Protein backbone atom coordinates (compact mmCIF):
# COMPACT_ATOMS: atom_id res chain seq x y z
CA UNK A 1 0.00 0.00 0.00
CA UNK A 2 1.15 3.56 -0.71
CA UNK A 3 0.40 5.94 2.15
CA UNK A 4 0.97 9.68 1.81
CA UNK A 5 1.32 11.70 4.99
CA UNK A 6 0.71 15.40 4.37
CA UNK A 7 2.01 17.32 7.38
CA UNK A 8 4.44 14.97 9.09
CA UNK A 9 4.38 16.09 12.73
CA UNK A 10 2.99 14.63 15.96
CA UNK A 11 -0.35 13.50 14.48
CA UNK A 12 0.77 12.41 11.00
CA UNK A 13 4.00 10.88 12.27
CA UNK A 14 2.18 8.87 14.94
CA UNK A 15 -0.20 7.53 12.26
CA UNK A 16 2.82 6.54 10.15
CA UNK A 17 4.37 4.63 13.06
CA UNK A 18 1.22 2.62 13.75
CA UNK A 19 0.40 1.95 10.09
CA UNK A 20 3.95 0.72 9.47
CA UNK A 21 3.57 -1.78 12.29
CA UNK A 22 0.13 -2.97 11.16
CA UNK A 23 0.80 -2.89 7.38
CA UNK A 24 4.54 -3.63 7.09
CA UNK A 25 4.50 -3.63 3.26
CA UNK A 26 3.48 0.02 3.13
CA UNK A 27 5.62 2.64 1.40
CA UNK A 28 5.34 6.04 3.09
CA UNK A 29 5.51 9.26 1.11
CA UNK A 30 5.94 12.49 3.07
CA UNK A 31 4.74 15.93 1.99
CA UNK A 32 5.41 18.98 4.15
CA UNK A 33 5.82 22.71 3.54
CA UNK A 34 8.57 22.62 6.17
CA UNK A 35 11.64 21.11 4.46
CA UNK A 36 13.44 20.64 7.80
CA UNK A 37 10.53 18.60 9.19
CA UNK A 38 10.51 16.50 6.03
CA UNK A 39 14.22 15.71 6.34
CA UNK A 40 13.75 14.94 10.02
CA UNK A 41 10.83 12.58 9.24
CA UNK A 42 12.99 10.77 6.66
CA UNK A 43 15.85 10.47 9.15
CA UNK A 44 13.49 9.17 11.85
CA UNK A 45 12.12 6.59 9.40
CA UNK A 46 8.58 7.98 9.58
CA UNK A 47 8.53 8.27 5.77
CA UNK A 48 10.50 6.52 3.04
CA UNK A 49 10.28 9.07 0.24
CA UNK A 50 10.01 12.85 0.11
CA UNK A 51 7.21 13.65 -2.26
CA UNK A 52 4.80 16.29 -3.59
CA UNK A 53 1.28 16.57 -5.03
CA UNK A 54 2.49 15.32 -8.46
CA UNK A 55 2.83 11.81 -6.99
CA UNK A 56 -0.51 11.82 -5.18
CA UNK A 57 -2.15 9.70 -7.91
CA UNK A 58 -0.06 6.79 -6.53
CA UNK A 59 -1.74 6.95 -3.13
CA UNK A 60 -4.04 4.29 -1.64
CA UNK A 61 -4.42 6.34 1.52
CA UNK A 62 -3.67 9.95 2.41
CA UNK A 63 -3.37 11.20 5.99
CA UNK A 64 -3.81 14.99 6.11
CA UNK A 65 -2.54 16.43 9.40
CA UNK A 66 -1.97 20.13 8.84
CA UNK A 67 -3.34 23.23 10.62
CA UNK A 68 -7.06 23.59 9.91
CA UNK A 69 -6.70 26.89 8.01
CA UNK A 70 -4.25 25.26 5.60
CA UNK A 71 -6.51 22.19 5.50
CA UNK A 72 -9.46 24.07 4.00
CA UNK A 73 -7.16 25.45 1.29
CA UNK A 74 -5.33 22.21 0.51
CA UNK A 75 -7.97 19.51 0.89
CA UNK A 76 -9.75 20.31 -2.43
CA UNK A 77 -6.39 20.24 -4.25
CA UNK A 78 -5.48 16.93 -2.62
CA UNK A 79 -8.79 15.41 -3.66
CA UNK A 80 -8.23 16.74 -7.21
CA UNK A 81 -4.93 14.86 -7.36
CA UNK A 82 -5.82 11.42 -5.92
CA UNK A 83 -7.15 8.45 -7.89
CA UNK A 84 -10.70 7.09 -7.50
CA UNK A 85 -9.63 4.23 -5.21
CA UNK A 86 -7.81 6.37 -2.65
CA UNK A 87 -9.13 7.25 0.81
CA UNK A 88 -8.14 10.64 2.21
CA UNK A 89 -8.71 11.30 5.90
CA UNK A 90 -7.83 14.29 8.06
CA UNK A 91 -7.09 14.82 11.73
CA UNK A 92 -8.39 18.37 12.11
CA UNK A 93 -9.69 19.62 15.46
CA UNK A 94 -12.64 21.40 13.82
CA UNK A 95 -15.01 19.75 11.39
CA UNK A 96 -17.79 22.08 10.14
CA UNK A 97 -15.76 24.30 7.83
CA UNK A 98 -13.64 21.41 6.54
CA UNK A 99 -16.71 19.37 5.61
CA UNK A 100 -18.31 22.44 4.08
CA UNK A 101 -15.27 23.17 1.88
CA UNK A 102 -15.41 19.74 0.18
CA UNK A 103 -19.20 19.34 0.25
CA UNK A 104 -19.57 19.66 -3.52
CA UNK A 105 -16.17 18.34 -4.52
CA UNK A 106 -16.44 15.67 -7.26
CA UNK A 107 -14.25 13.38 -5.12
CA UNK A 108 -16.19 13.94 -1.84
CA UNK A 109 -16.66 10.15 -1.66
CA UNK A 110 -12.88 9.75 -1.31
CA UNK A 111 -12.78 11.83 1.88
CA UNK A 112 -13.39 10.67 5.47
CA UNK A 113 -13.63 13.50 8.02
CA UNK A 114 -11.93 12.40 11.25
CA UNK A 115 -10.79 13.88 14.53
CA UNK A 116 -8.66 11.52 16.60
CA UNK A 117 -8.76 12.91 20.17
CA UNK A 118 -5.14 12.29 20.91
CA UNK A 119 -2.00 14.31 21.15
CA UNK A 120 0.46 15.88 23.50
CA UNK A 121 1.56 19.47 23.96
CA UNK A 122 4.58 18.76 21.72
CA UNK A 123 4.80 19.07 17.95
CA UNK A 124 6.96 18.18 14.94
CA UNK A 125 8.17 14.76 13.65
CA UNK A 126 10.22 14.04 16.78
CA UNK A 127 7.01 14.27 18.85
CA UNK A 128 5.49 11.27 17.00
CA UNK A 129 4.72 8.35 19.32
CA UNK A 130 3.86 4.72 18.57
CA UNK A 131 0.48 3.74 20.01
CA UNK A 132 -0.56 7.36 20.53
CA UNK A 133 -4.03 6.37 19.33
CA UNK A 134 -4.56 3.16 21.33
CA UNK A 135 -7.64 3.53 23.52
CA UNK A 136 -8.42 7.00 22.18
CA UNK A 137 -11.63 8.23 20.61
CA UNK A 138 -11.80 8.98 16.89
CA UNK A 139 -14.76 11.13 15.90
CA UNK A 140 -15.95 10.49 12.35
CA UNK A 141 -18.23 13.04 10.71
CA UNK A 142 -20.59 12.55 7.74
CA UNK A 143 -19.46 8.93 7.33
CA UNK A 144 -22.31 8.34 4.89
CA UNK A 145 -20.66 10.66 2.39
CA UNK A 146 -17.61 8.41 2.04
CA UNK A 147 -17.60 5.43 -0.36
CA UNK A 148 -18.23 2.12 1.47
CA UNK A 149 -14.99 0.37 0.65
CA UNK A 150 -12.95 3.50 1.41
CA UNK A 151 -14.71 3.91 4.78
CA UNK A 152 -13.79 0.33 5.46
CA UNK A 153 -10.11 0.74 4.56
CA UNK A 154 -9.69 3.59 7.04
CA UNK A 155 -12.00 2.32 9.80
CA UNK A 156 -10.44 -1.15 9.89
CA UNK A 157 -7.08 0.48 10.39
CA UNK A 158 -8.40 2.77 13.16
CA UNK A 159 -9.87 -0.25 14.93
CA UNK A 160 -6.63 -2.22 14.65
CA UNK A 161 -4.88 0.83 16.13
CA UNK A 162 -7.16 0.42 19.14
CA UNK A 163 -9.30 3.51 18.60
CA UNK A 164 -12.90 3.87 19.75
CA UNK A 165 -14.96 5.11 16.82
CA UNK A 166 -17.78 7.62 17.42
CA UNK A 167 -20.02 9.11 14.72
CA UNK A 168 -21.24 12.68 14.96
CA UNK A 169 -22.32 15.50 12.70
CA UNK A 170 -19.75 18.29 12.16
CA UNK A 171 -21.82 20.96 13.95
CA UNK A 172 -22.29 18.84 17.09
CA UNK A 173 -18.59 17.95 17.02
CA UNK A 174 -17.54 21.61 16.93
CA UNK A 175 -19.97 22.64 19.64
CA UNK A 176 -18.94 19.95 22.14
CA UNK A 177 -15.22 19.98 21.39
CA UNK A 178 -15.21 23.69 22.26
CA UNK A 179 -16.10 22.67 25.83
CA UNK A 180 -13.94 19.62 26.31
CA UNK A 181 -10.85 20.77 24.44
CA UNK A 182 -10.71 24.31 23.06
CA UNK A 183 -11.73 25.99 26.35
CA UNK A 184 -9.11 23.98 28.28
CA UNK A 185 -6.42 25.36 26.01
CA UNK A 186 -7.50 28.97 26.49
CA UNK A 187 -7.87 28.60 30.27
CA UNK A 188 -4.37 27.15 30.37
CA UNK A 189 -2.80 29.80 28.12
CA UNK A 190 -4.38 32.64 30.11
CA UNK A 191 -3.39 31.07 33.43
CA UNK A 192 0.20 30.88 32.17
CA UNK A 193 -0.01 34.48 31.00
CA UNK A 194 -1.39 35.75 34.32
CA UNK A 195 1.37 34.10 36.32
CA UNK A 196 4.20 35.04 33.95
CA UNK A 197 3.06 38.69 33.90
CA UNK A 198 2.91 38.88 37.66
CA UNK A 199 6.10 37.01 38.37
CA UNK A 200 8.26 38.16 35.45
CA UNK A 201 10.86 39.70 37.73
CA UNK A 202 10.85 36.87 40.22
CA UNK A 203 11.81 33.67 38.46
CA UNK A 204 12.61 32.09 41.82
CA UNK A 205 8.92 32.12 42.55
CA UNK A 206 8.44 29.16 40.23
CA UNK A 207 10.29 27.13 42.84
CA UNK A 208 6.98 27.42 44.68
CA UNK A 209 5.00 25.87 41.86
CA UNK A 210 4.04 22.25 42.27
CA UNK A 211 2.53 19.55 40.12
CA UNK A 212 -0.92 21.17 40.31
CA UNK A 213 0.30 24.29 38.55
CA UNK A 214 2.18 22.20 36.02
CA UNK A 215 -0.93 20.20 35.25
CA UNK A 216 -3.16 23.23 34.69
CA UNK A 217 -0.69 25.12 32.47
CA UNK A 218 0.61 22.13 30.49
CA UNK A 219 -1.52 23.02 27.46
CA UNK A 220 0.02 26.51 27.37
CA UNK A 221 3.02 24.82 25.74
CA UNK A 222 0.85 24.02 22.69
CA UNK A 223 1.64 25.33 19.21
CA UNK A 224 0.13 28.77 18.39
CA UNK A 225 0.39 27.93 14.66
CA UNK A 226 -1.94 24.98 15.18
CA UNK A 227 -4.31 26.58 17.67
CA UNK A 228 -4.90 30.04 16.17
CA UNK A 229 -6.73 28.60 13.12
CA UNK A 230 -8.72 26.20 15.35
CA UNK A 231 -10.07 29.14 17.38
CA UNK A 232 -10.77 30.99 14.12
CA UNK A 233 -12.73 28.06 12.64
CA UNK A 234 -14.69 27.51 15.82
CA UNK A 235 -15.01 31.15 16.85
CA UNK A 236 -18.73 31.15 17.63
CA UNK A 237 -18.65 28.10 19.90
CA UNK A 238 -15.40 29.13 21.59
CA UNK A 239 -16.74 32.61 22.39
CA UNK A 240 -19.80 30.98 23.97
CA UNK A 241 -17.72 28.68 26.18
CA UNK A 242 -15.48 31.59 27.18
CA UNK A 243 -18.46 33.73 28.16
CA UNK A 244 -19.79 30.95 30.39
CA UNK A 245 -16.37 30.27 31.89
CA UNK A 246 -15.74 33.96 32.67
CA UNK A 247 -19.23 34.19 34.18
CA UNK A 248 -18.50 31.25 36.48
CA UNK A 249 -15.16 32.76 37.55
CA UNK A 250 -16.84 36.09 38.28
CA UNK A 251 -19.51 34.38 40.38
CA UNK A 252 -16.83 32.53 42.34
CA UNK A 253 -14.93 35.78 42.92
CA UNK A 254 -18.13 37.44 44.09
CA UNK A 255 -18.77 34.66 46.61
CA UNK A 256 -15.25 35.22 47.91
CA UNK A 257 -15.70 38.99 48.09
CA UNK A 258 -18.97 38.42 49.99
CA UNK A 259 -17.25 36.00 52.40
CA UNK A 260 -19.81 33.38 51.36
CA UNK A 261 -17.71 30.33 52.22
CA UNK A 262 -20.69 28.01 52.27
CA UNK A 263 -21.29 29.03 48.67
CA UNK A 264 -17.62 28.44 47.77
CA UNK A 265 -17.67 25.02 49.42
CA UNK A 266 -20.80 24.12 47.47
CA UNK A 267 -19.32 25.24 44.14
CA UNK A 268 -16.31 22.99 44.66
CA UNK A 269 -18.26 20.10 46.10
CA UNK A 270 -20.69 20.12 43.14
CA UNK A 271 -17.77 20.13 40.73
CA UNK A 272 -16.06 17.20 42.47
CA UNK A 273 -18.33 14.94 40.41
CA UNK A 274 -15.77 15.50 37.64
CA UNK A 275 -14.00 12.55 39.35
CA UNK A 276 -16.48 10.04 37.96
CA UNK A 277 -16.48 11.75 34.59
CA UNK A 278 -12.71 11.67 34.33
CA UNK A 279 -12.67 7.97 35.15
CA UNK A 280 -14.14 7.44 31.71
CA UNK A 281 -11.33 9.28 29.90
CA UNK A 282 -8.60 7.23 28.23
CA UNK A 283 -5.16 7.33 29.85
CA UNK A 284 -3.10 10.48 29.59
CA UNK A 285 -0.36 10.75 26.96
CA UNK A 286 1.43 13.78 28.36
CA UNK A 287 5.20 13.78 28.43
CA UNK A 288 5.41 12.85 32.11
CA UNK A 289 3.46 9.69 31.47
CA UNK A 290 4.97 8.54 28.19
CA UNK A 291 8.38 8.72 29.86
CA UNK A 292 7.59 5.69 32.02
CA UNK B 1 11.57 9.51 69.01
CA UNK B 2 7.86 10.11 69.60
CA UNK B 3 6.16 11.72 66.60
CA UNK B 4 2.56 12.90 66.78
CA UNK B 5 0.69 13.36 63.52
CA UNK B 6 -2.35 15.58 63.94
CA UNK B 7 -4.56 15.14 60.88
CA UNK B 8 -3.51 11.84 59.36
CA UNK B 9 -4.34 12.22 55.66
CA UNK B 10 -2.34 12.65 52.47
CA UNK B 11 0.13 15.19 53.91
CA UNK B 12 0.49 13.86 57.47
CA UNK B 13 0.45 10.24 56.37
CA UNK B 14 3.16 10.82 53.76
CA UNK B 15 5.33 12.47 56.42
CA UNK B 16 4.78 9.44 58.66
CA UNK B 17 5.88 7.05 55.89
CA UNK B 18 9.11 8.93 55.22
CA UNK B 19 9.95 9.53 58.88
CA UNK B 20 9.44 5.84 59.65
CA UNK B 21 11.93 4.91 56.95
CA UNK B 22 14.50 7.52 58.05
CA UNK B 23 14.04 7.12 61.83
CA UNK B 24 13.00 3.47 62.27
CA UNK B 25 12.88 3.70 66.07
CA UNK B 26 10.09 6.26 66.00
CA UNK B 27 6.72 5.61 67.65
CA UNK B 28 3.87 7.30 65.80
CA UNK B 29 0.86 8.70 67.64
CA UNK B 30 -2.17 9.66 65.54
CA UNK B 31 -4.72 12.34 66.39
CA UNK B 32 -7.66 13.02 64.11
CA UNK B 33 -11.19 14.37 64.53
CA UNK B 34 -12.28 11.74 62.01
CA UNK B 35 -12.37 8.40 63.86
CA UNK B 36 -12.65 6.42 60.60
CA UNK B 37 -9.49 8.03 59.25
CA UNK B 38 -7.70 7.26 62.49
CA UNK B 39 -8.68 3.58 62.33
CA UNK B 40 -7.65 3.47 58.68
CA UNK B 41 -4.27 5.05 59.51
CA UNK B 42 -3.70 2.44 62.22
CA UNK B 43 -4.64 -0.35 59.84
CA UNK B 44 -2.34 1.02 57.14
CA UNK B 45 0.51 1.21 59.67
CA UNK B 46 0.87 4.97 59.31
CA UNK B 47 0.52 5.33 63.10
CA UNK B 48 1.11 2.93 65.96
CA UNK B 49 -1.15 4.41 68.63
CA UNK B 50 -4.41 6.36 68.57
CA UNK B 51 -3.93 9.34 70.82
CA UNK B 52 -5.22 12.73 71.95
CA UNK B 53 -3.92 16.07 73.28
CA UNK B 54 -3.46 14.59 76.80
CA UNK B 55 -0.44 12.63 75.52
CA UNK B 56 1.12 15.54 73.61
CA UNK B 57 3.67 16.15 76.40
CA UNK B 58 5.37 12.92 75.21
CA UNK B 59 6.07 14.32 71.77
CA UNK B 60 9.52 15.10 70.34
CA UNK B 61 7.98 16.21 67.08
CA UNK B 62 4.44 17.13 66.04
CA UNK B 63 3.29 17.26 62.40
CA UNK B 64 0.13 19.35 62.09
CA UNK B 65 -1.64 18.71 58.80
CA UNK B 66 -5.21 19.90 59.17
CA UNK B 67 -7.28 22.43 57.22
CA UNK B 68 -5.95 25.95 57.79
CA UNK B 69 -9.10 27.21 59.53
CA UNK B 70 -8.84 24.41 62.09
CA UNK B 71 -5.09 25.03 62.29
CA UNK B 72 -5.47 28.58 63.59
CA UNK B 73 -7.81 27.28 66.32
CA UNK B 74 -5.79 24.24 67.29
CA UNK B 75 -2.18 25.36 66.97
CA UNK B 76 -2.18 27.47 70.19
CA UNK B 77 -3.69 24.52 72.11
CA UNK B 78 -1.11 22.13 70.65
CA UNK B 79 1.71 24.47 71.68
CA UNK B 80 0.17 24.72 75.16
CA UNK B 81 0.36 20.94 75.51
CA UNK B 82 3.87 20.12 74.22
CA UNK B 83 7.06 20.06 76.28
CA UNK B 84 9.88 22.58 75.84
CA UNK B 85 12.01 20.24 73.74
CA UNK B 86 9.36 19.45 71.14
CA UNK B 87 9.28 20.85 67.61
CA UNK B 88 5.83 21.43 66.07
CA UNK B 89 5.62 22.07 62.34
CA UNK B 90 2.62 22.55 60.08
CA UNK B 91 1.94 21.94 56.40
CA UNK B 92 -0.63 24.66 55.82
CA UNK B 93 -1.05 26.24 52.36
CA UNK B 94 -1.34 29.74 53.83
CA UNK B 95 1.13 31.23 56.27
CA UNK B 96 0.27 34.83 57.31
CA UNK B 97 -2.70 34.13 59.57
CA UNK B 98 -1.12 31.01 61.05
CA UNK B 99 2.06 32.86 62.00
CA UNK B 100 0.00 35.75 63.34
CA UNK B 101 -2.09 33.47 65.56
CA UNK B 102 0.97 32.14 67.43
CA UNK B 103 3.05 35.33 67.28
CA UNK B 104 2.82 35.99 71.01
CA UNK B 105 2.43 32.41 72.18
CA UNK B 106 4.86 31.57 75.04
CA UNK B 107 5.95 28.48 73.06
CA UNK B 108 6.42 30.31 69.73
CA UNK B 109 10.03 29.01 69.70
CA UNK B 110 8.68 25.45 69.51
CA UNK B 111 6.88 26.13 66.23
CA UNK B 112 8.30 25.97 62.68
CA UNK B 113 5.97 27.35 59.98
CA UNK B 114 6.28 25.19 56.86
CA UNK B 115 4.54 24.67 53.55
CA UNK B 116 5.73 21.60 51.66
CA UNK B 117 4.67 22.15 48.03
CA UNK B 118 3.60 18.60 47.42
CA UNK B 119 0.38 16.69 47.18
CA UNK B 120 -2.04 15.09 44.84
CA UNK B 121 -5.74 15.71 44.23
CA UNK B 122 -6.55 12.82 46.58
CA UNK B 123 -7.04 12.92 50.34
CA UNK B 124 -7.32 10.74 53.44
CA UNK B 125 -4.87 8.19 54.92
CA UNK B 126 -5.06 5.88 51.89
CA UNK B 127 -3.75 8.74 49.73
CA UNK B 128 -0.45 8.85 51.68
CA UNK B 129 2.58 8.10 49.48
CA UNK B 130 6.17 7.27 50.38
CA UNK B 131 8.64 9.77 48.91
CA UNK B 132 5.90 12.31 48.19
CA UNK B 133 8.32 15.02 49.32
CA UNK B 134 11.48 13.95 47.48
CA UNK B 135 12.63 16.75 45.19
CA UNK B 136 9.85 19.08 46.33
CA UNK B 137 10.15 22.57 47.74
CA UNK B 138 9.43 23.25 51.41
CA UNK B 139 8.82 26.92 52.21
CA UNK B 140 9.82 27.85 55.75
CA UNK B 141 8.53 31.11 57.20
CA UNK B 142 9.96 33.13 60.10
CA UNK B 143 12.65 30.51 60.73
CA UNK B 144 14.41 32.92 63.11
CA UNK B 145 11.52 32.62 65.55
CA UNK B 146 12.12 28.89 66.09
CA UNK B 147 14.70 27.65 68.62
CA UNK B 148 17.99 26.63 66.92
CA UNK B 149 18.06 22.98 67.93
CA UNK B 150 14.37 22.56 67.09
CA UNK B 151 14.88 24.15 63.64
CA UNK B 152 17.70 21.68 63.17
CA UNK B 153 15.64 18.64 64.15
CA UNK B 154 12.99 19.41 61.57
CA UNK B 155 15.22 20.77 58.79
CA UNK B 156 17.62 17.82 58.91
CA UNK B 157 14.67 15.52 58.45
CA UNK B 158 13.31 17.61 55.53
CA UNK B 159 16.72 17.46 53.89
CA UNK B 160 16.99 13.71 54.35
CA UNK B 161 13.54 13.45 52.77
CA UNK B 162 15.04 15.15 49.73
CA UNK B 163 13.23 18.47 50.06
CA UNK B 164 14.59 21.78 48.77
CA UNK B 165 14.31 24.33 51.58
CA UNK B 166 13.37 27.94 50.77
CA UNK B 167 12.97 30.74 53.33
CA UNK B 168 10.35 33.43 52.86
CA UNK B 169 8.26 35.79 54.95
CA UNK B 170 4.60 34.79 55.42
CA UNK B 171 3.21 37.74 53.44
CA UNK B 172 5.41 37.03 50.39
CA UNK B 173 4.51 33.34 50.62
CA UNK B 174 0.78 34.05 50.56
CA UNK B 175 1.05 36.55 47.71
CA UNK B 176 3.06 34.29 45.39
CA UNK B 177 1.32 31.03 46.27
CA UNK B 178 -1.96 32.64 45.20
CA UNK B 179 -0.54 32.80 41.65
CA UNK B 180 1.22 29.47 41.40
CA UNK B 181 -1.26 27.33 43.31
CA UNK B 182 -4.53 28.87 44.49
CA UNK B 183 -5.47 30.37 41.09
CA UNK B 184 -4.80 27.03 39.35
CA UNK B 185 -7.32 25.37 41.65
CA UNK B 186 -10.04 27.93 40.94
CA UNK B 187 -9.43 27.88 37.18
CA UNK B 188 -9.70 24.12 37.27
CA UNK B 189 -12.86 24.03 39.41
CA UNK B 190 -14.61 26.61 37.24
CA UNK B 191 -13.55 24.84 34.03
CA UNK B 192 -15.04 21.64 35.40
CA UNK B 193 -18.21 23.49 36.39
CA UNK B 194 -18.59 25.12 32.96
CA UNK B 195 -18.31 21.82 31.14
CA UNK B 196 -20.51 19.85 33.56
CA UNK B 197 -23.24 22.50 33.37
CA UNK B 198 -23.22 22.51 29.61
CA UNK B 199 -22.99 18.81 29.10
CA UNK B 200 -25.07 17.56 32.02
CA UNK B 201 -27.54 15.83 29.75
CA UNK B 202 -24.95 14.42 27.41
CA UNK B 203 -22.59 12.22 29.37
CA UNK B 204 -21.42 10.62 26.12
CA UNK B 205 -19.75 13.88 25.27
CA UNK B 206 -16.97 13.10 27.72
CA UNK B 207 -15.91 10.39 25.29
CA UNK B 208 -14.62 13.37 23.33
CA UNK B 209 -12.44 14.60 26.16
CA UNK B 210 -8.76 13.81 25.90
CA UNK B 211 -5.72 14.05 28.11
CA UNK B 212 -5.63 17.85 27.73
CA UNK B 213 -9.01 18.24 29.38
CA UNK B 214 -8.05 15.75 32.07
CA UNK B 215 -4.89 17.67 32.84
CA UNK B 216 -6.62 21.05 33.18
CA UNK B 217 -9.47 19.81 35.37
CA UNK B 218 -7.46 17.42 37.54
CA UNK B 219 -7.39 19.87 40.46
CA UNK B 220 -11.20 20.07 40.42
CA UNK B 221 -11.11 16.72 42.22
CA UNK B 222 -9.51 18.43 45.24
CA UNK B 223 -11.14 18.51 48.67
CA UNK B 224 -13.56 21.45 49.27
CA UNK B 225 -13.05 21.04 53.04
CA UNK B 226 -9.35 21.74 52.61
CA UNK B 227 -9.62 24.47 49.95
CA UNK B 228 -12.48 26.63 51.26
CA UNK B 229 -10.46 27.77 54.32
CA UNK B 230 -7.36 28.35 52.16
CA UNK B 231 -9.30 30.76 49.95
CA UNK B 232 -10.74 32.39 53.07
CA UNK B 233 -7.29 32.90 54.63
CA UNK B 234 -5.81 34.22 51.44
CA UNK B 235 -8.88 36.11 50.21
CA UNK B 236 -7.18 39.38 49.31
CA UNK B 237 -4.42 37.81 47.21
CA UNK B 238 -6.75 35.30 45.59
CA UNK B 239 -9.23 38.01 44.54
CA UNK B 240 -6.35 39.94 42.97
CA UNK B 241 -5.15 36.93 40.94
CA UNK B 242 -8.73 36.20 39.87
CA UNK B 243 -9.26 39.76 38.67
CA UNK B 244 -6.13 39.58 36.55
CA UNK B 245 -7.01 36.14 35.19
CA UNK B 246 -10.55 37.22 34.25
CA UNK B 247 -9.15 40.36 32.62
CA UNK B 248 -6.77 38.26 30.50
CA UNK B 249 -9.60 35.91 29.46
CA UNK B 250 -11.78 38.86 28.51
CA UNK B 251 -9.00 40.36 26.40
CA UNK B 252 -8.49 37.04 24.64
CA UNK B 253 -12.22 36.78 23.96
CA UNK B 254 -12.23 40.33 22.59
CA UNK B 255 -9.37 39.50 20.20
CA UNK B 256 -11.42 36.55 18.99
CA UNK B 257 -14.57 38.64 18.60
CA UNK B 258 -12.52 41.21 16.62
CA UNK B 259 -11.07 38.46 14.39
CA UNK B 260 -7.62 39.60 15.49
CA UNK B 261 -5.81 36.32 14.86
CA UNK B 262 -2.39 37.94 14.83
CA UNK B 263 -3.14 39.10 18.36
CA UNK B 264 -4.32 35.62 19.39
CA UNK B 265 -1.20 34.03 17.92
CA UNK B 266 0.97 36.53 19.81
CA UNK B 267 -0.80 35.87 23.14
CA UNK B 268 -0.17 32.15 22.83
CA UNK B 269 3.35 32.52 21.48
CA UNK B 270 4.33 34.84 24.34
CA UNK B 271 2.92 32.37 26.86
CA UNK B 272 4.82 29.44 25.32
CA UNK B 273 7.79 30.56 27.42
CA UNK B 274 6.08 28.67 30.24
CA UNK B 275 7.95 25.67 28.75
CA UNK B 276 11.27 26.82 30.16
CA UNK B 277 9.65 27.78 33.46
CA UNK B 278 8.00 24.38 33.84
CA UNK B 279 11.30 22.63 33.22
CA UNK B 280 12.33 23.86 36.66
CA UNK B 281 9.34 22.30 38.44
CA UNK B 282 9.87 19.01 40.30
CA UNK B 283 8.28 15.91 38.82
CA UNK B 284 4.53 15.46 38.96
CA UNK B 285 2.98 13.33 41.70
CA UNK B 286 -0.49 12.99 40.23
CA UNK B 287 -2.18 9.62 40.35
CA UNK B 288 -1.51 8.84 36.69
CA UNK B 289 2.18 9.14 37.34
CA UNK B 290 2.46 7.33 40.64
CA UNK B 291 0.66 4.39 39.03
CA UNK B 292 3.68 3.61 36.84
Question: Can you walk me through this structure?
Answer:
Two copies of one chain form a homodimer. Chain A is of the alpha/beta class. The first copy, chain A, has two domains: 169 residues, Rossmann fold (3-Layer(aba) Sandwich), CATH 3.40.50.720; 118 residues, 6-phosphogluconate dehydrogenase C-terminal like domain (6-phosphogluconate dehydrogenase C-terminal fold, Orthogonal Bundle), CATH 1.10.3660. Helix content of chain A is 50%, strand content 12%. Chain A has twelve helices and eight strands. Chain A has an eight-stranded mixed sheet, sandwiched between helices. In chain A, strand 7, helix 5 and strand 8 form a beta-alpha-beta unit. Chain A is globular, with a radius of gyration of 21 Å. Chain A starts with a strand and ends with a helix. The C terminus of chain A is likely disordered.
